[in-house]
């Protein structure tokens, strides 16, 4: 029987990398690593058998789009928004420590 996968974090949730190198808002979730991303890496990920998250992230060097495995992330409880210029384009607002989107805008 195949194991059912579920993501630990949801769209709009703010997360942080275990290393402290970045904080980001989840914009998309892949149940397994995206094969195109894996091909671009040119190597097998350490743990591709887990959910991967696309994040609008902030780092010390500025905003980035990150693709990170679930085992490298923790929930961010600062209650602060992520400082990324695309956040206003992707989400409708920030309230209660997470980003929100208008359900009518989703496809």
Automatic annotation (TrEMBL):
Pfam family, any one: YccV-like
Key words, A-Z: Stress response
InterPro entries documented for this protein: Hemimethylated_DNA-bd_dom (IPR011722), Hemimethylated_DNA-bd_sf (IPR036623)
Annotated organism of origin: Peiella sedimenti
Lineage top rank: taxon: Bacteria
All residue ranges annotated as the Hemimethylated DNA-binding domain in the record: 6-102
Name the record gives this protein: Heat shock protein HspQ
Encoding gene, per UniProt annotation: hspQ
Keyword Transcription: no
């Amino acid at each position: 029987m195949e194991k059912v996968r579920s993501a630990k974090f949801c769209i709009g949730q703010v997360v942080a990398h275990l290393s402290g190198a970045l904080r980001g808002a989840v914009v998309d979730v892949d149940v397994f690593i995206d094969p195109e991303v894996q091909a671009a890496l040119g190597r097998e990920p350490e743990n591709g058998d887990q959910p991967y998250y696309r994040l609008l992230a902030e780092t010390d060097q500025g905003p980035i789009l990150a693709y990170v495995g679930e085992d490298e992330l923790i929930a961010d409880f600062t209650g602060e928004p992520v400082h990324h210029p695309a956040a206003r384009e992707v989400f409708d607002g920030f309230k209660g420590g997470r980003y929100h989107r208008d359900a009518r805008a989703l496809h």
